[in-house]
Amino acid sequence: MRFDEAYSGNVFILSNPTFEESDAVIYGMPMDWTVSFRPGSRFGPARIRQASLGLEEYSPYADRHLEEVTYFDAGDIPLPFGNPQRSIEMIEEYIEKLLDAGKFPLGLGGEHLVTWPIIKAFHRKYDDLVVIHIDAHADLREQYEGEPLSHSTPVRKICGLIGPENVYSFGIRSGMREEFQYAKESGMHMYKFNVAEPLKEVLPTLAGRNVYVTIDIDVLDPAHAPGTGTAEAGGITSKELLEAITMISNSDINVVGADLVEVAPAYDSSEQTQIAASKFVREMLLGWVK
Fold first, then answer.
1. What is the mean pLDDT of the chain?
2. Is 112 assigned to a binding site?
3. What CATH architecture does domain 24-288 belong to?
C-alpha cells in the first residue's frame, strides 16, 4: 500500500477522494500483538469507519460541518501479523511520509504501543513537542513480563525521548505503584481520575506549543465504552471526553497530530464504543485540523 493511494474499503464519512488536496490523513494501525488481556483492537479502525456512516456531518460542539475540512482516509497500514518490531518500524516510516507531505496525521488503533513510533517520527520534526495523553492506564512500565515492546510501555518510552516534563497524562486510574512513583519523581505531569478539569488549568501553560494528542478509549468508564481490551471501572463519561476535545480545540496550542486507540469491537455488541469513537474522531477533525 502506498501512503497516498485510495482505500478500497469503507472510509470515514465524507472522506476526500484525493490525498493531494487533503489537509489531514486518517489511517488505521490494526495491531494488537502485545496486549496483556483481551485482543481484538486490530479490528477497531474498520469498525470506527463503519460507525461513522451514522454520524451527522454537522457538529453543534464546533459549529462546523465536515465539508469545511479536507481529509483523506488512506485505510489501514498492512502491518505484519504478530511482528511488533516490524510493525512499529512501518508505522514510523508511514508517519514520516505524511509529515514530509505536510499532512495532519490522525491515526486509528490498534493497541497503544502504536503511539510510540508515531512520536519518534514527530520528534524529528518538532524539537519542542508536547504529548497530551488521555487514558485510564499510566503506560509507564519499562517492560511487561520481560518484554519492552508492550502496550503498557509507550508513555515511558515517550518520556525518555522527549523528556518527562513534556508529557501530560490525564484520567489515569490504573497502573503499578512504581509507575505512579516514576510520574511523581520524573517531572512528568500526571492528573489522576479526571480529564476536563485539570486540562482546563494546563492548556494555557502550553499556549503556542506543538502538541500531539493520544486518546485511549478506555479512559471512558466501561458503561460508556465496554468495547476495549483492558476496561477499567471509575472512568469519565463520553460527555466529559467531548468537553476535553472541545477545550483543546478552543485553546491556543498547536495540535500537530493525534490518534485514538484501543477500540476492540468484539466486546461491545451494542456498538456504542465504536459509535462514540467515530464521534470523537469527527470532533478532532473539526477542531484540530487547521
1. 96
2. yes
3. 3-Layer(aba) Sandwich (3.40)
